Amino acid sequence: MVARIVLRACKACNFITEDEVCPRCGSPTTKEWQGMVAIADWEKSEIAHKMGIKTNGRFALKVR
Ligand SMILES: [Zn+2]
After folding, report:
1. 16: CA distance to ligand 1 center in Å?
2. What spacing in Å lies between the alpha carbon of 36 and ligand 1's midpoint?
3. 3 pLDDT band (50/70/90 cuts)?
4. pLDDT at residue number 5
5. Ligand 1 center to residue 55 CA distance, Å?
6. Which residues does 7 contact at the CB level (< 8 Å), separation at least 6?
7. Taking the domains of the chain in order of start, what are their residue ranges?
8. What is the pTM of this model?
9. Could you tell me which residues come within 8 angstroms of residue 34 by beta carbon, excluding any fewer than 6 positions away?
């Protein structure tokens, strides 16, 4: 069997992680999320500005 990594998204800041607790803000994460956006340069990213993201990384567009 191949071990699959389940990605989770933070309920507070949408940060995508494998952990059950967000490494950025310490909030609980969930498996119920949709759409991933990778921010490589948040200062120049329009999406990052729209979403209020001020750090690089992967974020979920929609978190339930
Ligand atoms: Zn977070």
Report:
1. 8
2. 15
3. confident
4. 84
5. 11
6. 16, 17, 18, 31, 36
7. 8-63
8. 0.84
9. 60, 61, 62
